[in-house]
Write a structure and sequence with these properties.
The complex is a heterodimer of chains A (about 300) and B (about 300). By secondary structure, chain A is α+β, with helices and mostly antiparallel strands. Chain A has two domains: about 250 residues, 2-Layer Sandwich (Alpha-Beta Plaits); about 30 residues. Chain A has eight helices and ten strands. Chain A has a four-stranded mixed β-sheet. A two-stranded antiparallel ribbon of chain A has the order 2-3. Chain A has a two-stranded antiparallel ribbon with strand order 4-5. Chain B has a single domain, classed as Up-down Bundle (Formate dehydrogenase/DMSO reductase fold), CATH 1.20.1630.10. Chain B has twelve helices and no strands. The two termini of chain B are about 30 Å apart. The N terminus of chain B is likely disordered. The chains are: A alpha+beta (about 300), B mainly alpha (about 300). Chains A and B meet through helix 3, helix 4, strand 6 and helix 8 of A and helix 2, helix 4, helix 5, helix 6 and helix 8 of B.
Chain lengths: ~300, ~300
């Protein structure tokens, strides 16, 4: 369906003097080492229960597989049969050295590229989960993040299929939905989220969104100049179907390779058209009933 | 790709599958957390929603016998549907949190308000009619219920379309009409069963008209979905869709050809139309799950959109 452009929600609305700058994550996957410290720190700080018995997925080192009720940070591992870019290695010299030492020389056409990326809730500007939530359990905090109020959620599950990223999920044994809170409790105390704090390479960077966006621009430029033409930003600005994200990424391949939708759209952008279609259908109901009755008793 | 097990005969009629990339074939979006209570609520709510205006129209035309049947069907639909909806909640004891806010961006919020207003009205109208108590109030409740009914049987189409589930979202224009037709067919059929043949003419006609709307809207939906309609031809959704359409066509034909003269034909037709209506909701419900599960339904249209924009 074609989209209706809805105004971007005003941030800090309803918070008056207590509104804070919009905070977010910039996840630079080019320096992620797949250590999963973010997953562990998130689980520990937020007391997120285990997913179930530990299983090996058989897909590289990924054993959490997807974001969900019990996985608020998910590290994806992608193995690609293409050479790692090593711009500073002189292959001829390396081959000579290897021949002298009796070892195998590095080959230009050999090896694989290993992409690692820590995924998280995007804290969308047009957050479908929040917009469809009938109880108001999902709300926008003073930091511009999207959080579930667990004392309000009645587990209707509407946010689950509404999310274009498959982030939010119902915890079956609990009945309510859960997702990343961008460590709302830590933010209130002036601390950074647990995942960003634990990240040893600063792949996960936390800060004011405006500042992070500038930093990301600089980083992608630097990577392009260093010969990493694959580097690209994902959801870095407002020119997307979710009106911008509180958590955006630097990726080294297409988003779908990381399990991310290439062109996510908040479903509620189409809602005016959907209600119009329902109005037409309701009109058909009334007309059909009137016509059926007007046709006589027998 | 997980969907290569489609029936051979169909496959050569389809457009060849283009290349798409994904994370180990894992889903991009989540399947809904809903369970089978939801399609059955859609059926029961649709039954109530279309029967309520039929009751009002029948009363206005002086057909008291049909009005009584329709008002009973409306009350029964609501009485069965509401508990189904509550029991699907992860925390059923918090069902009243639905009425904390009035939120037009949430079709579920709007539906909850319609249900909260229509439930007591429909049940009150039926009780008043059956027991003959407070007839004035009963008639007023019947009118309220009749006005809200068309909303109740169509908002559910918006509810499912307002998600990231491709086969639902992209069918947003047709789904409310599919549900409306299905609701009309079932309400007409149920009212036919409860009404003596001499007074059931409008119910029989409504059932046939509803069936035609349902079949037409579903066909349009599939045509416009194009490649995305694939779940309607595969797996459980495919089976439900074929059964639904078979029952609906057969039911409508039986009702139209022999329903006026033969009581058994009207009853058989009604049974088939009720089954067809329920199966249609199950088909839509299952198709949504199937399209959420396979990343190609999410990635390919989005990729195509990007390529179209870059062209």
């Amino acid at each position: 369906m074609t989209q209706t452009d809805l105004p971007t929600p005003t941030f800090g609305g309803g918070y008056d003097g207590e509104a804070r700058p919009r905070m977010g994550f910039f996840t630079d996957t080019s320096i992620c080492i797949g250590c999963k410290a973010c997953e562990v720190a998130c689980k520990e700080w937020n007391l997120v229960p285990e997913r179930g018995p530990l299983e090996l997925s058989g897909t590289s080192y990924d054993n959490t597989m997807a974001l969900g009720a019990n996985t608020w940070r998910h590290v994806a591992f992608i193995e690609q049969a293409r050479p790692v870019q090593v711009p500073d290695v002189d292959l001829a010299a390396a081959a000579a050295a290897a021949a002298g030492a009796g070892t195998t020389a590095p080959q230009a056409r050999e090896g694989m590229r290993w992409l690692m990326s820590s995924d998280v809730c995007k804290h969308c500007t047009s957050a479908a989960c929040l917009e469809v939530c009938p109880t108001g359990a999902l709300f926008r905090t003073e930091f511009g993040t999207v959080v579930v109020q667990q004392d309000i959620c009645n587990g209707c599950g509407y946010c689950v299929p509404a999310c274009p990223f498959g982030v939010i999920e119902r915890r079956e044994e609990d009945g309510r939905v859960f997702k990343c809170t961008l460590c709302y409790d830590r933010l209130k105390d002036g601390m950074e989220p647990a995942c960003a704090h634990a990240c040893p390479t600063k792949s996960i960077q936390f800060g004011e969104l405006a500042e992070l966006r500038e930093r990301a621009e600089g980083r992608v430029q630097a990577l392009h100049e260093a010969g990493f033409g694959d580097a690209r930003l994902y959801l870095e600005d407002e020119a997307n179907g979710i009106g911008g994200a509180g958590a955006f990424f630097l990726l080294l391949d297409e988003p779908e390779v990381y399990g991310l939708p290439p062109d996510p759209v908040s479903t509620t952008r189409d809602l005016p058209r959907l209600w119009k279609a329902a109005a037409v259908a309701a009109g058909v109901v009334v007309t059909a009933v009137a016509a059926a009755v007007a046709g006589g008793r027998r | 790709m997980s969907s290569n097990n489609g029936r051979r005969r169909r496959r050569d009629m389809m457009v060849p599958e283009a290349e798409f990339r994904s994370y180990y074939g894992r889903p991009v979006i989540k399947e809904p957390a809903w369970t089978l209570e939801i399609p059955w609520y859609f059926f029961a709510g649709g039954l109530a929603g279309a029967a309520a205006p039929l009751a009002v129209a029948a009363r206005m035309s002086g057909n008291e016998r049909l009005a009584r049947s329709a008002v009973t069907v409306a009350a029964a639909g609501i009485a069965v549907g509401t508990p189904l909806l509550v029991s699907d909640l992860g925390r059923p004891e918090r069902f009243h949190h639905m009425l904390r806010m009035f939120k037009p961006t949430s079709p579920m919020s709007m539906g909850s308000w319609v249900l909260a207003a229509m439930g007591p009205a429909a049940v009150g109208a039926a009780v008043s009619d059956r027991l003959g108590i407070l007839p004035g109030l009963g008639r007023a409740a019947e009118v309220v219920s009749g006005l809200l009914g068309p909303v109740l049987c169509t908002y559910t189409g918006v509810l499912v379309a307002n998600t990231a589930v491709p086969v639902w979202h992209e069918a947003g224009r047709e789904l409310p009409l599919v549900f409306a037709g299905s609701a009309l067919a079932s309400a007409g059929a149920a009212s036919t069963v409860l009404t003596p043949a001499a007074d059931a003419g409008p119910a029989r006609r409504l059932a046939v008209v509803g069936a035609l709307v349902e079949l037409g809207a579903a066909a349009t939906m599939e045509r416009r979905l194009g490649e995305l309609a694939e779940p309607y031809h595969q797996g459980p959704a495919g089976r439900y869709a074929r059964l639904a359409r078979g029952c609906t066509v057969l039911g409508a034909a039986t009702m139209a050809v022999a329903g006026t003269r033969r009581r058994w034909a009207a009853m058989a037709g009604s049974g088939l139309l009720l089954a067809g209506s329920a199966l249609e909701r199950l088909a839509v419900y299952k198709a949504g799950f199937q399209s959420a599960r396979d990343p190609k339904y999410v990635v390919k249209p989005q990729r195509a959109r990007i390529e179209a924009a870059n062209r």
